[in-house]
Amino acid sequence: MFLADPPSTCLSPTVYYMICEAGFERKSSCAVSSFMCDAGEINWEFITKHIQYGEQDPKLDYINSVRSLGPLCESIHLHLKSLTVEQFENQFVIFLEMFYTIKNPHDAAVALSLMKLTSCLERALGDVFLLIGKDCPFLLRDLLASQEFVSIFGQPVMDVLKVFIGSPDSLNLRNILWHGFVSAKEIPVKYFSMLLFLTAGLGQLLNNYCLQAHSALIHRPYVSFTHLKELHIFPDLNQELLSLAEELVTKSNIVLKTMIPFWIAAITSFQQARYADCVILLLPQLEGGLRVLFTAVNKCPSRLITAESSSLYTTFDEILAKQLNNEEVNQLSIVLGESAMEHESVNLLMTCANNYCTKFHPITQLKKQILNCIKSITSWPDIPMGFEEQEISGLLIELCSKHIHTLFSPRTILETIVVLRQISTHCHHVSCQVISVCETRYEQWINKSLRSRQRLNFLRMRRSIKFLSPVLQLVLILITLELTNIHMICRKNTFEYQQYLKFLKLILQYIENLVTYTSPEKNKWDETVVLTYKSLIKIRAFLGRELTLVKLAETKNTLECPDSL
Prior knowledge:
single chain; mainly alpha; 3 domains; ERMARD; transmembrane helix; Transmembrane protein; transmembrane; DUF4209
């Protein structure tokens, strides 16, 4: 075993007290009429009265707020539990499946439902933020602290939410669940019922706000996996293997006994074809299991427990990092690489893993974008694919097939990939616009429905795209070469990196302008040629300076090492 004495909980004493004890200290009950009006609306005024603040400052007093809210949460849970299916569906339409969790909170059901609810709530809150805000905050705590929500829901309502999901000092239900710190028996079901109740109440407040502001909530589109066949590289799991998986879980060195119910529930979900539930349950446990191994091999057992608000949790970011905070080498990758290869029982999975190319890493996505873009450009009307175009297309395919390490990518690499992807995206946009305009105008030309100015513009467009096509192909070659040498960025100092990023953003600005000029609304084809000419001069100037610096460096190395001549 990695742990000679496995802990009975992964919650620190302070966090354990907050979640499992503070909300149970006071014994009282609340009438349904106190927290819900006759019309079915939630009485926020009554709920917000339970929030406690410091005596000398307006800061939230999380512990006393949880103590005060505890009996209310219990009363709300008992109320929801007493409802019939029809009554529950009438008040909580989209959360019907959670009704059965409240009625029968067994095994990992409460944790699974809470993870679903917090994810849906966080996503929905981001949509609400965009009603009046611009850039949605990345972190949930920053989202809840925004003035935009104070304008929509009011400060007291936001303080209630913060007690449940807003801070490491709070119940912090979202983070302790999604990061795999809490066991199935440590989440009181009454907090799930309360958060479900609050979510419905937020919907009521939002409806009132939208009516007064004459606005409507627009939900952002969800991610959709369109190329599912690419992901089918691992072997299918039959009943025999799933039974073996259950046995392995109970014997595994990285699975704490308190976490076994999550693994069993995940396997059951897989057997029932509830694959989303399976993934939701497994992700936190994967992190928790790796945390067990991480703390063992790096000899830091205290990091297995939830951190206090004054320090950071040990999460995937640190577990998968190349170095520890003290700059020592993280032993996890070394142990995983060596020990995994020693066991014959995992040879099949290791073969699959070795042949697996990450599908969702930004580098992989950029490769796909480049290949889709060159395919689009070489299909332009009036420009048959010649020998040179075939060579360029083949070159890009060859370059994109080269393996690029995606593990331990520093921020500078990821920032650069973002810019390269933006360039590729806009290149494809330009190509699609050119194809669309060409086809439309050609049809109008044949039908003789173009006016005099439109005919002249059509001729200018045909001349321009013959010049534009090779330039876009050049841009694709440039960003592909930058991609294949992406790890060279780590050798640049801060000034060199900033200049390099400035160069890439110059190309991005050029392509963004092309998107505007080639749009059906603008049709500025002569201006496109002028813009392209000026941009090419700037690109050549930068590349010329880079080449000069490379030659100077080579000359310097030669002079310093005369013996190598």
